Structure prediction request, 422 residues.
Amino acid sequence: MLVIGGGIAGLSSALSAAQAGADVRLVSEAETTLHHASGLLDVLGYPPNADVDGPVVDPFDAIGELPETHPYAIVGEQAVRDGLAMIDDVLGEAYHGSHTDANALVPTHGGTVKPTARYPTSVAAGLASDDRELLLVDFERLTGFDAGVAAEHLEAAGIPAETNAATVEFPIVVRDDAKVTRYAHLLDENPTVTVDGREQRVRTALADAIEPHLGEAERVGFPAVLGVDHPAEIRNELEDRLGAAVFEVPMGPPSILGGRLEDRLYAALDDAGGEIEAGGGPIVDFDADDGTISEIYMDRSGSRIPYAAEQYVLATGDVAGGGIDADRAGVTEPIFGCDVPHPEDRYEWFEGEAFGDHAFAEFGVVVDDALRPVGAEGDPEFPNLRAAGAVIGGYDYPAEKSASGVSIATGYAAGRRAAKEV
Prediction:
C-alpha cells in the first residue's frame, strides 16, 4: 500500500494500515508541514452554517447534525473515535484530552481561545477555563508572541482568571530574527551564563528574571519554546524555581509543538514497520491498467522513480498544501486528475465579505462511502484509490476548527479500508 502525503492525514492512513497488517510505504513531495501546525488536535470547534454563540462544547454531539457531504458524516462517528484512540495510544502521556469528549479551551499566542480535543501536556496548565491567576511572559527580541496583547485579548474574551504580562530579557542575547528553535535548543543545552557577575545556568537565570513579575500568579505561560529534546525536564525545573505551574502557549510557524508531534507520529509509523520517504520530490505521472492505478512516478533529480502498490491513499492536502490546483483555467487534483467540483464563474468562488461563506474553502475531491474519489457521474475514479484529509472537499476546516480531526478520522478509515484490499 502506498500513502501519498506526509501530514496528519497521511500518517494516520499509514499507521492505521500498518496496524491492520498491511505493508505500507509513505511518500511525500516535500518535508511535512506539521512544523507549521499548532500541535493542537481539534475535532470540531464550530458547527458549519449554524448560528451559535461560542464554541462547541461536545463535538460528538454536533457530528450527527452535519450535512451528509461532510467527511465526518461519510466516515461516521465511530471512525472519528477509533482514529482518535489510535492517536491517543501513540501520543500517550504527552497529550491530554482523551478522558473526555468535551473540548478544552486553549489560549493561543494571539490571545484567542481555541476549542480543541487533544492538547500537549505542556499546554494543560494554561486552559482558559482555569480560574487561577496567570502571568504571560515573552522575551525581548522574540517575534510572534506579545504577552501584553495576548493578556488583553484574553481578558476581553472574559476568561475567569486574572491575567498579567511581563517581558523579560532572555539570559543569552539572541539576534532579532532568530527562529524559535534557537531559544528551544538553548534551554535544552542549558549552558552557563554570567548574570550580574554570577555564573548561572540558563534555566535558572530565566526563572530569576521572571520571579520579580510573578506577584500572586499561580500559573506562568511561556511562548512554546521550552525545549525540543527535554521539554518536560525544562518545564519541571522552571516550576520548581518559580513555585507556579508552567505552561506553553501555542505559537505560529515554525512551531515547536508541531515539531514534537511530527517526531512522535513518524517514530510510531517507523515502529509499526512503515517505510517513510519524505521530501522525495514531486509526483509527475502514473500508470493505470484497465482503470486501476498500477504505479506512480516521482521525479528525483531529473529521474522518474516508479512506485508500485495494490492500494493508494491520496493525502496531499488542499490548495494551501498543493493537493488541489486552482488557477484561471479551473480547479483540479494534479496527480490523478480527479474531479473537483467548482463553479465555472471564478467570481462565484468567493463572497464579498472577508469572512463570508467562500466556495473555495470547500474545494476538494468528492468521495463515496469507501473514501474513493468519484467523478462527475458519481462513479469511483479508480477502484484502488482513496482520499484522506484536506484533499477531500465539502467542509470548511479553518472555520470549523476541524482540520486535524478530519485528517485523523478519514486517514484512519482510508488506511483500514485499503488494508483490507491488499
